[in-house]
Design brief:
Helix content: 10-25%
Distance between the termini: 110 Å
Number of helices: 6
Structural class: alpha+beta
CATH topology of the largest domain: Methylamine Dehydrogenase, Chain H
Number of strands: 33
Strand order of the largest sheet: 6-33-32-31
CATH class of the largest domain: Mainly Beta
Length: 524
């Protein structure tokens, strides 16, 4: 007897008193609970109408396919074939899902690039609009000459910027600006006469015990190299410019990176803090200069992108007023900018000079500008007249760095052949340091803020005690270049010469100074 529902021999047979049909107990119970009817006749049926049937133990007959070895092999073959077909279908579904995911990721990446480009165009447009608004009081011809519209993120036709003779028109340095520079010069010169060495300055015996305190990997490994360093002395923040096209702001006290500034498309060649208003400047081999504005949350936004040069920008230097700055480029010109507006007031080009500029620095009083050239010449400029007032020859190779002493009359310059010291009162070289072999250039020089020490970077880092024109300049400490590259690219004194920040052709910023225990004993 077979179940009327499943057609198989029931394990627990029951019979309906109404229809007399045989069922599997569990199947008819479920059907009655769901429908309340007989599955065959359709009449109303309850569990009271179901009567169990007493039978002996039922043994299910073995299927014909499992009754013989050939049948079992055939069954296994069918199961294997079904498994392979299922596996093939799953692989096809996986391949389709991967293709869909790859396409979705590509669309997402493209969308991100479009958004980034649109944001960049928006920021540049805002920058130019702000610049145009600041220039509104200027004559219409000048305003038109100095404001370039954007089209797809690029400057409009350069002919709109050009004046007679095919040169860009500049508003020039006004009488009020010259008066401001002169007033600043007079005030600083008067202070310098009363200048004294600060009592907190690190003594010579402390510098003699300087060693590496820390090393910080700030830049990318695929494009290592730090090209420029500057320090915000009031906040103890170190800025580095790298070959990886980024500038990094580093808090030396906490040992943490405050911000990484991206935007340049080529290596950052020069970085400078502005002492006021939390402003930061960066120059790059991509021919641009960027003005970054800090915010309360510690982030920096690019406020202006300056595109007045036609070749690599090699140096940026800030005037003592903190209202103006100068950029020097390999295009044989230097530009004088208003910091608040980002407007190039004048672009100076000497027709007799065909050498690009590789370095630049303001004199501490602000009325003299020093520039180094690719042709081994140091050129001294009067900022008020923009005239070349002196030239210092004698170096071999490009002048890589310039540093004025705080005393106002010493100038240190670095080039391939070493370091030369110049007396600005007599306009002559009074001492030279030939430190390295002919294949190793000197890359950086820096006077500390008191004018007591001079740091030099090449294949190592050397610190000299500043003497005089006649007195010796003694080397008080030689620090090794621990990068393994044999090329220390930049060096900068910290506050009161308490430490040295050094950049090399690896990605690490290194801090040299006194260990904490030695520092305490020195102070005592």
């Amino acid at each position: 007897m077979n179940c009327s529902i499943s057609g198989e021999v029931p394990e627990e047979p029951v019979v309906s008193t109404k229809s007399g049909l045989l069922y599997e107990k569990r199947l008819i119970e479920r059907h009655i609970s769901d429908y309340g009817k007989c599955p065959v006749t359709g009449e109303v049926l309850t569990m009271d109408d179901i009567v169990p049937v007493k039978t002996g133990k039922i043994v299910k007959p073995r299927s014909l396919t499992a009754a013989s070895i050939p049948g079992m092999l055939g069954m296994f073959q069918n199961e294997w074939d079904a498994l392979m077909l299922s596996n093939f279908a799953l692989e096809q579904q996986l391949h389709t899902a991967r293709q869909e995911l790859s396409h979705a990721l590509y669309q997402h990446d493209a969308a991100c690039r479009v958004i980034a480009r649109l944001k960049k165009e928006r920021d540049e447009a805002r920058s130019l609009l702000a610049q145009a608004e600041r220039q509104a009081p200027l004559p219409a011809s000048v305003a038109t000459a100095n404001v370039s519209a954007l089209s797809n993120g690029k400057r409009a036709a350069e002919s709109e910027d050009m004046g007679p003779g095919g040169k860009r028109m500049r508003p020039g340095v006004s009488d009020s600006i010259i008066a401001e520079l002169t007033e600043c010069n007079a005030a600083l010169s008067q202070q310098r006469k009363k200048r004294q060495i600060p009592p907190t300055l690190a003594p010579i015996d402390a510098l003699e015990r300087y060693t590496q305190l820390s090393s910080h990997p700030l830049h990318k490994t695929n494009k290592p190299g730090i090209t420029s360093i500057d320090i915000n002395l009031s906040k103890d923040i170190v800025a580095t410019g790298g070959v990886d096209s980024s500038a990094v702001l580093f808090d030396r006290t906490s040992g943490e990176i405050l911000s990484t500034l991206n935007g340049h498309s080529k290596k950052v060649t020069s970085v400078k803090f502005v002492a006021q208003n939390d402003v930061f400047l960066s120059g790059s081999a991509d021919k641009t200069v960027r003005i970054w504005q800090g915010s309360e949350d510690g982030k920096y936004d690019c406020r202006h992108i300056l595109k007045d040069h036609t070749a690599e920008v090699q140096a940026v230097t800030v005037h003592a007023t903190n209202n103006y700055f100068v950029t020097a480029s390999l295009d044989t010109t230097w530009c004088f900018y208003d910091l608040s507006s980002g407007l190039c007031l004048t672009q100076v080009e000497d027709p007799s000079n065909s050498m690009g500029y590789t370095s630049a620095a303001f004199h501490p009083d602000g009325l003299i500008l020093g520039t180094g050239t690719t042709g081994a010449t140091v050129r001294i400029w009067d900022v008020k007249s923009r005239g070349n007032v002196a030239n210092f020859d004698g170096h071999t190779g490009a002048v890589t760095a310039i540093s004025f002493s705080e005393n106002g009359y010493f100038l240190a310059t670095a080039a391939h052949d070493g370091v030369k010291l110049w007396d600005l009162r007599k306009l002559k070289n009074f001492r030279s340091f030939e430190l390295y072999d002919q294949d190793t250039p000197t890359n950086s020089v820096d006077f500390d803020h008191s004018g007591s020490y001079l740091a030099i970077a090449g294949s190592d880092i050397r610190v000299y005690q500043v003497g005089s024109v006649k007195a010796e300049w003694n080397c008080i400490k030689t620090l090794p270049d621990l990068s393994g590259t044999g090329k220390a690219t930049c060096v900068k004194f910290g506050t009161d010469a308490k430490y040295l920040a050094v950049g090399s052709m690896d990605r690490n910023l290194r801090i040299f100074g006194l260990p904490e225990g030695d520092d305490a004993s020195t102070e005592s």
